């Protein structure tokens, strides 16, 4: 929380004449990426990164293709199990390979934003240049000038057309800072001039740190309460 507080202080000090003007949060896609995209993207990455150390045509290259080929699933409703049906989007639930595949998928967006010269980065103390921050399926972009909105939208459109994943505009939140407060911005989002919640943390003017901690404390207590009625080994108690 100290890092979050430091970021808040830094933004408050830069409100007048600062380059940072808006913060946009993109949350999970309305539609998941197509299986074809995962299969093609995986093959491309494997070809580039793994074949440098594995002989061409090795089992490492073929295994992801086998996992992603002819994906089917079944569901259980009221005790009745359905027959198998094809899965056209997303990845296998519970499969150890799925998180790694999603990283490959999300990396294409961050790389595209990083290579977009029209989307200007925000310079933070220490020399770092930031355009976006990703956590799982959440993407937070920092926009520092009006001219950056158009190339940002273009990258998102290209990403959607290439992957089949679509931005869920109803869940897209934006925080206007400095001179942009109260103004209409050229991006379709739910805008706030006060604060927004990013990955469970309130950010903005007068962001309630106590509320953030209280919400997390309630979640932890609720989680611990679910284990209070179960028998746990010494190792299990230690992990909790």
UniProtKB/TrEMBL annotation:
Limits of the Reverse transcriptase domain: 1-185
PANTHER family cross-referenced by the UniProt entry: REVERSE TRANSCRIPTASE DOMAIN-CONTAINING PROTEIN, REVERSE TRANSCRIPTASE-LIKE PROTEIN WITH RNA-DIRECTED DNA POLYMERASE DOMAIN
Highest rank taxon of the organism: Eukaryota
Taxonomic lineage: Eukaryota, Metazoa, Echinodermata, Eleutherozoa, Echinozoa
Name of the protein in its database record: Pol-like protein
Pfam families recorded: RVT_1
């Amino acid at each position: 929380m100290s890092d979050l507080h430091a970021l808040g202080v830094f933004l408050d000090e830069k409100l007048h004449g600062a380059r940072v003007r808006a913060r946009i949060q993109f949350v999970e896609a309305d539609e998941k990426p197509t299986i074809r995209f995962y299969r093609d993207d995986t093959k491309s990455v494997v070809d580039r990164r793994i074949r440098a150390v594995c002989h061409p045509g090795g089992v490492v290259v073929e295994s992801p293709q086998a996992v992603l080929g002819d994906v089917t699933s079944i569901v259980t409703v009221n005790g009745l199990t359905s027959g198998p049906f094809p899965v056209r989007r997303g990845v296998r639930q519970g499969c150890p390979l799925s998180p790694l595949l999603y990283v490959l998928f999300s990396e294409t967006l961050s790389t595209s934003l990083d290579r977009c010269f029209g989307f200007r980065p925000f310079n933070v103390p220490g020399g770092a240049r930031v355009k976006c921050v990703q956590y799982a399926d959440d993407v937070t972009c920092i926009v520092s000038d009006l001219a950056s909105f158009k190339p940002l939208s273009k990258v998102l459109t290209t990403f959607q057309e290439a992957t089949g994943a679509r931005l869920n505009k109803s869940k897209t939140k934006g925080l206007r800072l400095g001179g942009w407060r109260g103004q209409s911005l050229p991006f379709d989002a739910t805008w706030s001039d006060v604060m927004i919640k990013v990955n469970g943390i309130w950010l903005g003017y007068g962001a309630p740190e106590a509320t953030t901690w209280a919400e997390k404390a309630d979640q932890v207590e609720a989680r611990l309460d679910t284990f209070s009625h179960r028998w746990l080994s010494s190792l299990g108690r230690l992990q909790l």
